[in-house]
Design a protein that fits this description.
The chain has 398 residues and is an alpha/beta fold. The protein is 39% helix and 19% strand. Helix 2 (49-68) runs parallel beside helix 5 (129-146), helix 6 packs across helix 12 (364-375) and helix 10 (292-320) runs parallel beside helix 11. The longest helix has 29 residues, at 292-320. The protein binds 5'-O-[(R)-(carboxyoxy)(hydroxy)phosphoryl]adenosine and zinc ion. Zinc ion binds next to helix 6.
Length: 398
């Protein structure tokens, strides 16, 4: 079975093609492409939804054509689908996406055969609505013309599933760790630009949020603090790089928000405000351009605060829920200080991080989440019924 997967929830347009081996619950990665829009959004200091949508629209057809190049197996295109009488019936469903619709038709019409695709997995939510809709509509159009089912995927479930992929996923026949090799219950700490959640996983596909942030997400706080220190969006990785050069400094002390709240809720907006006041005060002393070492020290203290809070709450949940496997995923799981601290703390349970290439948004995590559904016997849905859901929550019925 050939599975195409699509991710457009934020500022990456990503697509992959995998060959699923249903018996082995595994797949081989045939193509995997991500186009990042980071440079386009950097000038706005964050992701600009209308721009993200425009870029996804431009990128999706390009990625699709790239994926179809040098096919692995061919299948015929049903020309009846392009009859005017048929087109008239479905055009109203794609009013919002006329341009993309026309581009896909004109491309598909010219082909007599294309790469075989048996199903499409697409991110349904959560994310930016205009960005999500672009991917969803692209998938719906293809689903109609190729007469194949759609698997709507929760983006956060995608991040959880990113840990299934082995490090050398591109070059091997079996890209995933055996699904039965994981011990339950699991706990996932999901830390990205839009989310900070602790999720209890009873078994694959059964998710329950036990706590989350009340305001800013961890990645968002990293980006905002980085901006205060003069770094371009997304500043998270840059802030973490300078934090490595930081030293303990008595002048620079930040709070550990909600550390002792006795629940699994987080709050990071106060921490961001504390950094703002700290920076203002330090500027009075050192001048408008803070010395590099001071910036490094702030970054270090900020990272320490975030990691201490995440670690403390996660430790509590691991104990309370008798967790056997801990997953850390989402863009911020790339942070090396965080990885080191978690590795030191959780020596006695299985601790899993995504391989470096798959920490940020990508299409392979969407394919692996779809595989978990296929493995459970799900067959996907009809293109007519699929909607993007920008506020979709993990564990919520789709
Ligand atoms: O999961 P992701 O790629 O996109 C969302 O779904 O939001 O996460 C992106 C976030 C950004 O806020 C980025 O600054 C942050 O992850 N990030 C990091 C690091 N790498 C990415 N934050 C801290 N340290 C890093 N090394
Ligand atoms: Zn993400």
């Amino acid at each position: 079975m050939y599975l195409l997967s699509i991710e457009t929830s934020c500022d990456e347009t990503a697509m992959s093609l995998v060959k699923v081996n249903k018996k082995k619950n595994n797949f081989k990665v045939l193509r995997n492409i991500t186009i990042s829009q980071i440079n386009i959004h950097a000038q706005f200091g964050g992701v600009f939804p209308a721009l993200a949508k425009r870029e996804h629209k431009k990128n999706l057809p390009l990625l699709f054509q790239e994926i179809l190049k040098e096919p692995f197996s061919l299948s015929k295109i049903d020309k009846n689908k392009f009859l005017q009488s048929n087109l008239e019936k479905i055009i109203p469903f794609f009013e919002r996406e006329k341009e993309m619709f026309k581009r896909i038709i004109s491309f598909l019409k010219k082909q007599s055969e294309i790469q075989k695709i048996d199903a499409i997995a697409v991110t349904q939510g959560p994310g930016l609505a205009p960005a999500l809709w672009t991917g969803v509509n692209f998938a719906r159009i293809l689903s109609y013309f190729l007469s194949i089912p759609l698997f709507p995927i929760n983006h956060m479930e995608g991040h959880v599933s990113s840990i299934l992929l082995k490090e050398n996923f591109l070059n091997i026949e079996e890209a995933l760790f055996p699904l039965n090799s994981f011990s339950f219950p699991m706990l996932a700490l999901l830390i990205s630009g839009g989310h900070t959640q602790l999720v209890y996983i009873k078994e694959w596909g059964e998710y329950k949020i036990i706590g989350e942030t009340l305001d800013d997400a961890v990645g968002e706080s990293f980006d905002k603090v980085a901006r205060m220190l003069g770094m371009e969006y997304p500043g998270g990785p840059k802030l973490s790089a300078i934090a490595k050069k930081g030293k303990k400094n008595e002048e620079i002390v930040l709070p550990r928000p909600m550390l002792h709240s006795r629940d699994y809720r987080f709050s990071f907006s106060g921490l961001k405000t504390a950094v703002r006041y700290l920076v203002e005060n330090l500027k009075k002393k050192y001048g408008e351009n803070l010395p590099e070492q001071i910036k490094n020290d702030i970054a270090r203290e900020f990272e320490h605060s975030i990691v201490e809070v995440l670690l403390t709450k996660t430790k509590k949940a691991v104990k309370e829920f008798n967790v056997q496997t801990l997953i850390i995923a989402g863009g911020v799981s790339a942070n090396s200080f965080l990885r080191k601290e978690f590795q030191k703390t959780f020596e006695n349970i299985e601790l899993l991080f995504p391989t470096n290439l798959l920490c940020g948004d990508n299409a392979l995590m969407i394919a692996s989440a779809a595989l978990l559904k296929i493995q459970k016997g799900e067959r996907g849905m009809n293109w007519k019924n699929l909607e993007a859901k920008s506020r979709l929550r993990i564990g919520e019925k789709q």
